[in-house]
Write a sequence for this structure.
């Protein structure tokens, strides 16, 4: 039974930092794990992904500002460290898992599981 539970959202001023965490469970060893975001009135977009080959892919808009980390242990966690936040980073952020890796994962192809979302506001 797959579960994705996000935490860590909040409000920050421009230039600030936040770290989002996604606690994941279930057999996701063959899945691409990802963060997506959706701003009001906008389409959901891929932010960062890590696939089964440990390849990490970032959206151009967050490259060099966001860092994705995956940890396996007693609790499995997918973390997104966000620095130098900008107002256009404001969105609901979703943890996700998909069956297809690489750039297609970042494009939302094959996404099978979604978390409930956590709000990030930069203003």
């Amino acid at each position: 039974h797959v579960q994705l539970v996000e935490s860590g959202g909040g409000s920050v001023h421009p230039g600030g930092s936040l770290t989002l965490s996604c606690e994941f469970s279930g057999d996701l060893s063959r899945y691409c794990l990802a963060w997506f975001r959706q701003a009001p009135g906008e389409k959901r977009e891929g932010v960062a992904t890590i696939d089964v080959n440990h390849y990490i892919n970032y959206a151009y808009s967050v490259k060099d500002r966001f860092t994705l980390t995956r940890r396996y242990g007693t609790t499995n966690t997918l973390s997104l460290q966000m620095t130098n936040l900008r107002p256009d980073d404001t969105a609901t952020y979703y943890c996700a898992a998909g069956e297809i890796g690489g750039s297609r994962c970042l494009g939302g192809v094959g996404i099978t599981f979604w978390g409930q979302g956590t709000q990030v506001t930069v203003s």
